[in-house]
Design brief:
Layout (H helix, E strand, L loop, with lengths): L2 H17 L2 H8 L3 H15 L4 E3 L4 E3 L1 H27 L5 E7 L1 H8 L3 H7 L3 E7 L6 H4 L3 E5 L7 E9 L1 E5 L1 H7 L15 E2 L8 E5 L2 E5 L6 E2 L2 H9 L5 E4 H10 L3 E2 L9 E8 L6 H14 L10
Parallel strand pairs: 3-4, 3-5, 8-11
Antiparallel strand pairs: 1-2, 5-14, 6-14, 7-12, 7-13, 9-10
Length: 305
């Protein structure tokens, strides 16, 4: 195996480890699974050691693989940064741009914007992962993450894109059948639907006439996807606090009705998060600026109901 072949195998090796399988890595890289396997085999032959333990069901790093992966990932990141700098010198953003976004927000409000962005910047290759879980940007090799709600202390840089307002709501026929709560205490007698990944904690907090009040929501349904909860709300299953970027149209049409409007829910925001770097890659900067232009403002389009 020639030395340049070993270097060209580094992105493949790093991608295999990040994806957890040869098939997923092949899909991300746009090559065949056999080509991925061949590159890894050649790399191991060149290095004279096995990097990966392979079984039919799992893939894991050997001790040597763990040590090599740290250096390989750093080298791959440096190569990507060099590509970014070249694009900046040429005044043309280019290269692979890896982004992770929340599932529902990404589908509803980020995905529709991507075609225009890529038409504007045709030399950027965008890889978008939709996932409601908090992910490690550095470990996953991501350039940018869209996050909503509370942002924990970290070394990441955050740029606010738009406000994220929530509303307690229910379908009219649910309220006709079960009554309309007037205060947080009344919710104990209602079926409260719950989002599993809610970052505000296990309690629902309200700021009302008597100050801040909290309740523990109880109900027969929780899910890790907000669109699923929205469907249950419209069907009249219960009451839930939902971001307006999901239910704004339902509130406008009357499919859902705000409940307890005198009790405000915490105001959050949508953020673009990226690793702190000496120089922000041009491909990241243009995407952030584009999202600010499309989503920004104190009254995003989903709140105009």
């Amino acid at each position: 195996m020639r030395d340049n072949d070993a270097f060209s195998a580094i992105p493949v090796f790093v991608t295999v480890v990040e994806c957890g399988s040869f098939s997923a890595a092949a899909e991300r890289l746009g090559i065949t699974k056999s080509a991925v396997s061949k590159r890894i085999n050649h790399l191991e032959a060149k290095l004279g050691t096995r990097l990966l333990n392979r079984t039919t069901r799992s893939l894991s790093l050997t001790d040597a693989g763990e040590q090599y992966f740290e250096s390989a990932r750093a080298a791959y990141q440096l190569a990507r940064e060099a590509e970014d700098k070249l694009g900046q010198l040429q005044g043309n953003p280019s290269g692979l741009l890896k982004v992770t976004v929340p599932m529902t927000f990404g589908r509803l409000h980020i995905s529709p914007l991507i075609p225009e962005f890529l038409q504007r910047y045709p030399d950027i290759r965008l890889e978008m992962t939709l996932d409601d879980r908090m992910v490690d940007l550095v470990e996953g090799g991501y350039d940018l993450s869209i996050r909503i709600g509370h942002i924990p202390e970290s070394s990441l840089v955050a740029r606010r894109l738009a406000p994220c307002r929530s509303v307690l709501c229910a379908a009219p026929h649910y309220l006709e059948k079960h009554g309309t709560p007037q205060s947080p205490a009344d919710l104990q007698n209602h079926n409260c639907l719950y989002y599993s990944y809610f970052r505000g904690g296990a309690e629902w907090r309200f700021d009302g006439p008597a100050g801040v009040e909290s309740i523990q929501p109880r109900g027969n349904y929780q899910a890790n996807n907000s669109e699923v909860l929205r469907d249950a709300l419209v069907a009249g299953l219960g009451i839930c606090q939902m971001p307006t970027f999901i239910v704004g149209a339902d509130l406008a049409s009357g499919k859902l009705i705000p409940v307890m409007p005198d009790y405000a829910l915490p105001l959050h925001a949508v953020y673009a998060m990226f690793p702190e770097r000496k120089h922000l890659p041009e491909k990241v900067r243009v995407l952030i600026d584009y999202l600010v232009d499309k989503l920004g403002g104190d009254e995003p389009r989903w709140d105009r109901f």
